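Sequence design from tokenized structure. All designs in this work follow the same two-part layout: the structure record, then the generated sequence. An example of the structure record is given first.
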């Protein structure tokens, strides 16, 4: 499971500590140490650096993916002067699939830094595009060598 915290800074501004609430729920339900086929059952994702840093302090053993919505953000965070900082709070990056498609070298650069790459979102709502979506996912996994991907259509994941 990849729970995503939505607008955590806005929630904190209203007095709700979403990161602590998530940590408490995961701990109470023994999900912090849960695994599936030897891999962590829970991986966290969020767009906000501050929130991911809080999650690192609260849940340091869980994988944490920094969601990135623009090519400029990827360029910023994978720059040599920033990558060490990124690695202090994230175990991976999760850029849009369009960002990686436009610059597949991002995957190798992140891997060289020890970061996983899990792009988002692979989705098809039309029967006409289902085959194309499977081909697209196959390209990202087999050619670009991403570590996983977010999809609304797990049934179409290439096997």
């Amino acid at each position: 499971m990849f729970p995503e915290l939505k607008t955590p800074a806005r929630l904190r501004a209203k007095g709700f500590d979403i990161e602590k609430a998530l940590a408490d729920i995961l701990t109470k339900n023994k999900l912090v140490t849960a695994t599936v086929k030897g891999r962590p059952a829970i991986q966290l994702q969020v767009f906000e650096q501050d929130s991911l840093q809080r999650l690192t302090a609260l849940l340091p053993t869980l994988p944490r993916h920094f969601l990135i919505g623009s090519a400029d953000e990827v360029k910023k965070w994978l720059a040599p002067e920033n990558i060490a900082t990124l690695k202090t709070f994230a175990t991976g990056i999760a850029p849009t699939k369009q960002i990686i498609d436009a610059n597949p070298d991002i995957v190798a650069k992140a891997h060289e830094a020890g970061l996983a790459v899990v792009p988002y979102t692979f989705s098809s709502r039309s029967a006409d595009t289902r085959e194309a979506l499977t081909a697209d996912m196959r390209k990202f996994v087999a050619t670009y060598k991403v570590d996983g991907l977010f999809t609304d259509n797990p049934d179409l994941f290439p096997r």
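The chain has two domains: 1-62, 68-159. We note this feature because it recurs in several other targets discussed in the main text.
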